[in-house]
Amino acid sequence: MSINIIIAGPRGKMGSEAVQMVNNEQSFDLVACLDRKNNGKIMKDLDGLPDLDVPIYEDPEQCFQEVDADVFIDLTVAEAGFEHTKLALLYNIRPVVGTSGFTSDQINALADTAITNNIGCIIAPNFAVGAVLMMQFAKTAAKYLPDVEIIEKHHDQKLDAPSGSAVKTADLIRETRESKRQGHPDEKETLKGARGAETDGIRIHSVRLPGLVAHQEVLFGGPGQTLTVKHDSYNRGSFMDGIKLSVIKVMQLKRLVYGLENILE
Ligand code: NAP
Q1: Structure confidence by residue, pLDDT tens digits, 9-66
Q2: Which of 76, 122, 206, 228 has the maximum number of C-beta atoms within 10 A of its C-beta?
């Protein structure tokens, strides 16, 4: 049986990659797209997208009402993505969300809606399997080397900082690391922001440059030693295995799962 899928953000860098992935997967069917432009057109009218008769909708409610879908993939921006995801849950279409920048309150609200409606939802700040392993290794290391700084580097079109993956890494590290303030107790920034953002004493530094895709290093320091755990996504193909796996897994869920690591076996 094939899985019917709606994708939001099909003209975007992630969305267009997801369109290709879904189109190439035998057991997936792309049944519609949500796009804030191009209402009423079909995919083959749009430049750079496959030659498909897939309808494009601007209005999410109309899309979810008219299209018979199992899974909704959102790859847009936080504000729109949150509204799309909430609505998809209400229409019993299982969301797989890559869009970053949701607040914890928003994620909790979506988790409640998923439970109430008895439906699956997966939100992952990073769909690259290697990045998830990097976070898991960082969590293990933090138990023994609690002095840690995170450097995340992304392309200069990214809107949110720090990245969802960096925040998620800090959350995981906090599970094993004893809470502590790092650096010299009297350290002073002579240039504001020089020491990066701070969460529970952990420093997060965000680099934005053209040419980058998505990269993160987690640096640990202890007496006489450092350890670096590093992951690089060189192109957006790196995220597609995680999205594909999530589409399959979300069909069996009856609640919201946050983070790809929670569905990897
Ligand atoms: P992008 O190339 O800028 O694409 C964003 C898409 O969203 C575009 O099609 C854009 O349409 C659309 N959009 C923007 N504002 C919108 C709105 N208000 N309502 C509806 N659609 C809107 O960005 P991207 O690199 O593909 O990334 C998309 C999302 O995925 C971002 O949130 C990014 O942080 C996230 N991301 C997640 C992962 C992961 O593994 N979870 C990895 C990479 C990126 P217009 O062209 O009309 O603006």
Answers
A1: 999 999 999 999 999 999 999 999 999 999 999 999 999 999 999 999 999 999 999 9
A2: 122
For tokens 């709606």, name the residue: 6
Report whether the peptide linkage leading into residue 162 is cis, meaning its omega lies within 30 degrees of zero.
yes
**pLDDT tens string 168-220:** 899 999 999 999 989 999 999 999 999 999 999 999 999 999 999 999 999 99
HSE-CB at 8 with a 13 A cutoff on CA atoms is 30
pLDDT at residue number 85: 98
AA letter at 139? K
Whole-number Å distance between alpha carbons of 113 and 135: 28
Residue 201 CB-density burial (10 A; 0-12 exposed, 13-18 middle, 19+ buried): middle
Question: How many C-beta atoms lie closer than 10 Å to residue 29's C-beta?
Answer: 15
For a mutational test of ligand 1's pocket, the pick from 6, 34, 36, i.e. the residue with the most ligand atoms closer than 8 A to its C-beta, is 36
Pocket of ligand 1 (CB under 6 A): 9, 11-15, 36-37, 75-77, 80, 98-100, 124-127, 157, 214, 239
Query: Two tokens at 19?
Result: 């369109």
Give dist(CA 179, CA 33) in Å, integer: 45
Q: Which helix (H) or strand (E) holds 211?
A: none
Single-letter code of the amino acid located at 138:
A
| Residue among 33, 35, 76, 135 whose CB has most ligand 1 atoms within 8 A, to mutate | 76
Pairing of strands 202-208, 197-199: antiparallel
Residues 67-105 have pLDDT tens digits of: 999 999 999 999 999 999 999 999 999 999 999 889 999
